[in-house]
Amino acid sequence: MAIEGIADDAYRHHTRGCPFIKAAGEFPDPKSSVRQVINKHRAWFHTELRRLLAEAGRDEVDTKAETLAMLRDALMVGCFLDDPDVTRRTFVRNARWAAGLR
Fold this sequence. Notes:
With 102 residues, this protein is mostly helical. It is 77% helix and 0% strand.
């Protein structure tokens, strides 16, 4: 599972938050072209998480992918608002637990 990779990406490249989350706040209409791009990216990310979980032999991949995506959203915001070191550690610990990677 690429949990550490997700954490590293946010820690190194998204220290000002998630551009998709920020754009969603600026374009709240779900039918806007901006929101369509955001939705496409999020669908891709969920699909990738499900694929990685399935390849790792995990069960309940849909539920685990939803949880991991939500934790990543929190990671992206947390690296911006809070101590990024603490946020990264917290994400990795909880994402590993959610994915069944103890």
